Amino acid sequence: MSFEALNRRTFLGATAATLALSAGLGAQSAERKTKHVVLIGFAGGVRTRETFGSPSNVPNLVSLAKEGVLYKRVKSSNLGHYGAALSLFTGVAEPRGIRENGRGEEPTLFEYARKGLGLAAKDVWIATSGGAQQTNYSYSTHADYGERYGANTVDGDGLFNAEFKSILETLGRPKKLDEREAELLAKMRASIGGADPKAALNNAESAAQVERFILDELTGGTASLRGPNAADAKAIRVARNLLVLFKPRLVAIVLQSADIAHGNFNGYADVVRQNDAAIGDLMKAIRADPALRDSTAVIACPEFGRDRDLNSRRGLDHGDGSEDLEFVSAVAWGPEFARDRVIEDDVRAVDLCPTVCQLLGTTAPRAKAKALPRLYA
Ligand SMILES: [Zn+2]
Q1: Which of 38, 102, 90 lies closest to 235 in space, CA to CA?
Q2: What CATH superfamily is the domain 32-158+225-360?
């Protein structure tokens, strides 16, 4: 094979892998049924009263619980929205050096997964509902971890941090194209004007077009999403597209629209209902995909709840120290989990981090938390 042919073959293989489809499973995970984990930070401050306390608001979460495990008393870390959501990813309830607009010092589960399992950037993603602050979830400042083990971040409008070429270069060996890969590759080639794809790697302009194509695939359908939860719905849609296209090992989603509750209770309840519907769409895609449905775990948990009583604006703040604020409900659904099991014992939101690491076949050495109890069948 000529050098040029080899390069071409490598590029096509790499492209096919980018566009999808090889999960690149590590040896450690081969023993587990769970190959993919979706962690949904159902954040913005969401009480159990509006989720499992009002089952008609969240039919999709309820059906996940019926087929999985419901934790009814999950103690949250009351650190403000940012710190509390970050603690879901770090497994540390009181991180030092946390600033509202800075990265944390404690490694995230993304870093644990990438370092512990040797995962490439393409395997670990976080889809956020927007805001520069949320990109800080993707990695910490910890010297042993940090950016080189960070998650790719993408938001509903397609902002995307990855150095695209480096992703291409980290992809695996060429393999035979299946039908879907061939179709995507054909579409991608059309999108770069029929140019020889191998040239795209070394040509900034066409590389940008390739990146545009990937982003268009990831954000497919988000432009039409409207309503008070639009930013959240876009993040969930991007995560769905990511799962179907790339089959990554770990995708986290961070929501935030529920915080409309400070001034608008009805708007908040509406966000909860619409986010549940968006999660329903995500589940439909997972259940319809033979490469995902029997190998994907989905875990959803708010970062904290909200106050017991309405404020003077008929909204709900978060600061009264009530059970409504301090305890939330989490649901876990996956091929290895128990079905229709309800856990009444107290667990902690920070326990999600070591739980996800365990599922993927690694550990979270700095987390001050332990894997959720009675999760497995
Ligand atoms: Zn708030």
Answers
A1: 38
A2: Alkaline Phosphatase, subunit A (3.40.720.10)
